[in-house]
Amino acid sequence: MLLSELTDALAEKEVIGGDAEIEKLCMSDKEAGRGSLYFCIKGNRYDGHDFAQRAVAKGAVAVVCSKKLGLGVPEVVVGDVREAMSLMAGRFYSNPADKMRIIGVTGTNGKTTTCHIIANILKKAGRKVGIIGTLGIKYGKVSIAPEMTTPDPIYLHRIFSDMADDGVEDVVMEVSAHAAALKKIAGIYFDAGVFTNLTEDHLDFFGTMEEYGRAKEEFLSDKYCDFIVLNGDDEMGRRLYFKSGRKTLSYGIDEPSDVFAVNVKEEINGISFVMNLFDNIYNIRCGMPGVFSVYNCLAAATCCAVLGVDFDDIAEGIRLTEGVKGRVEAVENPLGKKIFIDYAHTPDGLKKILQALRKCTSGRLLCLFGCGGNRESAKRPLMGEIAGEYADFCIVTSDNPRYEDPCDIISDIEKGLRLKTERYITIQDRRAAIKYAVGMMREGDILLVAGKGAEEYQEILGVKHVFSDRQCIEELLGGKGV
Q1: Are residues 35 and 184 in the same domain?
Q2: Given 294, 319, 344, which residue is the final one in a domain?
Q3: pLDDT tens digit sequence for 307-340
Q4: Last residue of one domain, picked from the residues 75, 92, 109
Q5: Considering the entire predicted model, what is its pTM?
Q6: Least crowded by CB within 10 Å, which of 76, 210, 296, 313?
Q7: Angle of helix 291-306 relative to helix 111-124, nearest 10 degrees?
Q8: Helix (H, G, I), strand (E, B) or coil at 127
Q9: Is residue 35 part of a domain?
């Protein structure tokens, strides 16, 4: 494709030099090769402009930049390279997103589960569905391991193209706040945008809750979404609902909402409730515990109703959802111990799952968790305080320390934990911590292993080591090695 055809996607640009035949797109000089178009992306640690010459030397025939570089190849100078990359990637792959219905789900917690419930409903309605999110990418017979919640634009549009070629009709994808802030979704128009909730997270990147919320609000606008589905029990959801003068629907339990639930009953192996779907009444039972699961179900139901799915298919699609990998997932074992793994890695997420499990615990509630390194450190004592308040005993361990000293992370958690309890132990090695936690369980106890969910690695000093909470537990209990 010609460079001039790609730049047609940009409203404002200055093109220096002639045209060029573009064979591939890249945002790293390491990926540059013959016929490539290189995007000079500026990150936290590196500026792609500094590596543009290297990309040209490796075969890049043009660059997209925010300042003139004088490299002897055509340069497309733009105000925002990230936005330009998103728009040009869509054009390079012939705008495949326009060929399918795109549903985006944003929010601090619940994105993954809500996406999977929506996908199940759409499949029940006979649609061919693709899904993109924290658990990876799936469509047809294709399953791709996860890398990030919302892929970078070049890869995202290539996946869209492959999905369209495979006959996918609907794409359900998680839209992170980072994706909106970094313009990863520029040029994509969503048939429906769903908002789950806004609680503290990612302040290391956004700085304040206001900026974090603003990034999500950017997505939940007519710039990106044809229809918006909001949580009526969330402060931001209510504000956007009353602020919006366009196509918007709400769901909830406590506040008046367009779609709502009553008679919620929680059990260890799931929840049941009565759903009022635009005055159509359905008795719902699904295999996901916790009131937060009700919200995820309501969000999915409202979204699918907006898309015109038959109400009976919506109810049945929810009923068929037995659970989502790594989300309040029970680990079956020959000893019958009640152990759950979950991705909860925010204060609110940890609080909600502990509250849910507390209601189902006849014995003690044990909580094993850690916090990620090189991420928002302010939430560590908050998570410690929450764990100390709602669990009977805590095992603090390492999560993904990345480039931080695990002992420093654990120390931050302890600052909050000690405000609520002295009933805890710190064990840096995660496998040893899980072994200790499983070994101290008594009849009636429930153990929550939180923070990593379905992740199959532990990131230490830039290296991802193979590690799975589920596999670790199964090995310990299967071999009775506790």
Answers
A1: no
A2: 319
A3: 999 999 999 999 998 889 999 999 988 888 999 9
A4: 92
A5: 0.93
A6: 210
A7: 50
A8: coil
A9: yes
